[in-house]
Amino acid sequence: MVDGQAAFFTNRNVQSPPGFGLRQSSGALGPHRSKAAEDCRSPRRCRDDEYASPIGAAHWACWSIVGMMRQVFLDHQASTPVLPEVFDAMRPFFSEAHGNPSSLHQYGLRARDALAKARSQIAALINAESLDEIIFTSTGTEAANLAVKGTAYANERRGNHIVAAEIEHPAVLNSIEFLERQGFSCTRVKPDHEGRIDPDAIRAAITDQTVLVCTQHVNHDVGTIQPIREITQAAEDRGIPVFVDAVASAGWMPIDVRAAGVNLLSLSPARFCGPKGVGVLYRQRRARLVNLIHGGVQEGGRRAGTENVPAIVGAGVAAESAAREMSESMLHTSALQKRLWEGLQSTVPHIQLNGPGLGSKRITTNLNVSTEFIEGEGLLLRLDMNGIAVASGTSCVSKSLKASHVLAAMGLDHSLALASIILSLGKDNTIEEMNYAIEKFSAAVTQLREMSPLWDEFKRGTVGSAIVPGRTGVPPV
């Protein structure tokens, strides 16, 4: 373990609604659009004129075929299947145990007891000292908003400056941008080419007006594990609280908030086989925090509103399962990651792994790859038509057609950033699925390049490679 990592280590039936979103892209880069993609987008291919839109036509037309083929889910960074034991634990709280935890009768008591148990299960996952340090929210995004804005407002008399990395999740970056419109300022620290944040750069960015340092445990795009203990030490030396976004890592890597010196930390149970509709914010008892939602006194007065009891119960069970099976899950996903990357590397020319290499600097569930001379979005759609679900960016912003801000901050060539694909692994994936994904990925790249004018230009020697500068497709004499 390196870079402070030791401090942190102690069957799918897919259906689509009408108009399922085909985005305005094909396999070729830039303004070049393939005829195959345009034909697939044609309203004549829809099963009903009702769905004849340029957005949804092709996917809806193809879903009857997709439903009959093998399904491989490689987008666990966006969503994970709820464990059967999680679903079973949630079920009673939709019916016979439907009480409000703020009520004084026995129904309320049962709900309160369920919340307390879930709080203890979450606390155990991250080694929190007290159950009072666990605040339930609606999502990981809300937890990040509460941490960033709540800490800034609570310390406004001390100063108005925030330090954050350029590669934070949009939930953090957009919260900071909101605060900047309120008179706060922010120093954004640039990562290196692997997406790592230098603790010395954090230390240098801190001023007498700094009230918060924001960082990630693991980057959501490229899987880089940040040197958390070194970053928190840099902030501790100046008495500055640190917020850690652990949404991409919680449940998949051991987290010890006390050993790492973390003041606030967010996580999302939906990322480790828990339900959607619940997020978690860890708040060290000494960390000052202003609530953003006003109403009742739920969650110790930090987050008003009736708690989502079924989802919170499920989150607790998912956390307990993740903690129990973590070592096995890490070994399993590491083997899958190795097989998948080695297979892609050996069968797909002009492919690049973005971020650190496989090993101690990268989480075992993530691969971010760029394949030259095609668009990542076109490849995503082609894979989807072969039953393979991947991502072309973080799920919160993947509807936009912009290149990843993370890859841009790392200095990646713009064409490679547009060509990136994220493959994120889960505990239910198998080696056989990796082999299937490798086969279909390679075939899809070949098909898309055959329709790409840039690939033709590369083979003729009129454009070069961004992965290997100076190389063209013309064979040496």
Give the helix/strand layout.
Elements: H1 5-8, H2 35-41, H3 57-66, E1 72-73, H4 84-90, H5 106-126, E2 134-137, H6 140-154, E3 161-165, H7 170-181, E4 185-189, H8 199-205, E5 210-216, H9 228-236, E6 242-245, H10 257-260, E7 264-267, E8 279-283, H11 309-347, E9 351-353, E10 366-371, H12 376-384, E11 388-389, H13 405-409, H14 414-418, E12 420-424, H15 431-450, H16 453-460
Parallel strand pairs: 1-11, 3-4, 3-5, 5-6, 6-7
Antiparallel strand pairs: 2-8, 7-8, 9-10, 10-12
Helix pairs in contact: 4-11, 5-11, 6-7, 8-9, 11-15, 12-15
Number of helical regions: 16
- CATH top level label of the largest domain: Alpha Beta
CATH-derived topology of the largest domain = Aspartate Aminotransferase, domain 2
Residues in helix, %: 25-40%
**Mean pLDDT metric:** 86
What is the fourth-level CATH superfamily of the largest domain?
Type I PLP-dependent aspartate aminotransferase-like (Major domain)
Give the beta-strand count.
Answer: 12
Strand order across the biggest sheet? Answer: 2-8-7-6-5-3-4
